[in-house]
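Action item from last week, closing it out:
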Amino acid sequence: MDSSTTTTTTTTTPPSSSTITYDSPYALYALSLSTPSPSPHRSRAPNHRFLAVGSFIEDYNNRIDLLSFDDETLTLTPNPSLSFSHPYPPTKLMFNNNNKSSTDSSSSSPLLLASSADFLRLYNVTESAVEVVSVLNNSKSSEFCAPLTSFDWNDVVPRRIGTSSIDTTCTIWDVEKGVVETQLIAHDKEVYDIAWGEAGVFASVSADGSVRIFDLRDKEHSTIVYESPEPDTPLLRLAWNKQDLRYMATILMDSNKVVILDIRSPTVPVAELERHRASVNAIAWAPQSCRHICSVGDDTQALIWDLPDVAGPNGIDPMSVFSAGSEINQLLWSPAQPEWIGIAFSNKLQMLREDTWVGEYYCSKVANCEDETTPCIMFYRAVGEAEFFGHIQTGSDSRSHSCSLRPIHAIGDLATIVEDE
């Protein structure tokens, strides 16, 4: 593929042990991380992975860049020969081995990258080039395709990709044959996201405000497991918990809530996570845990939640937080590297090492506040010696107040309070 049409300058900020920053010449949105392959015909080092980033330029001409990510040297290195043009901003990127371990016997298959926008596109990725494999159009009557809002690659049946579209349909592709397996009118309005649960079961969310589950063995019916409490409030994103398929999460348009659903108890959420101070933009379940989920939003924060068996009367507080420089638009928590979380904001990509994030404590436990009756969650981050870097007030009294802080020491993703010396 010709990558010479655009000359760009990119930089990678020198990393700390917990954060690596990549600065792009354009705004970023879509993210995906590949799994390293031990295949002898690939020259990548064992710790070398490709991280695909897609531009968000309100124009036809956009870009996809493949960065080399090495978690030992803590580097994100641009590959000029693996940067290529893409029509319109990609709404999602995904490698075909996203859900495989590096010891998977099938990992000798070609490394493929899929993108969605005006069409579903598949690319073959090598060390030196990216080549188009196929451009898939789900329209039966036109050479043009209704814009695709998202897609998901089935990790049980790797030849199967499901796409969602503004034309109210979900299309299931056999990407090996390049043919449509089936196309369903999934909702009454635009479909904004799709997620596989099992080999033949997927779910979708829509502008009609519903979460629906479909089984390919019975294409005439679907199960509505949730509807927005406010009529016609769109649901924008859907994440299915791959470690426990009973649970999924969704977010509403212009809402600070993350809604947690148990598909065994339709219509009623088992939890609502409401500690963001602005709209939530993306969610991702932890690939190695059934209890943890991450959310990012317009409040510039990435929050990690540890879901309890039963939520308390005052709701659920996040266990960890990271603050970015501006609104966070996208999130990546990949099975390929579960200890790292990727976030995209403005023109930056940051890889954050999850086990250096530190948990929260209430004022009554760690500090003296002007108003000790108002809960205030103290967040710290380990940067050399532990330091305070923000707080979220959770009480009804919204006035600000100061806190007298004690230092903490990070231990994995937990923290222990230590007395002032």
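Closing note: DSSP finds one helix and 36 strands in the chain.
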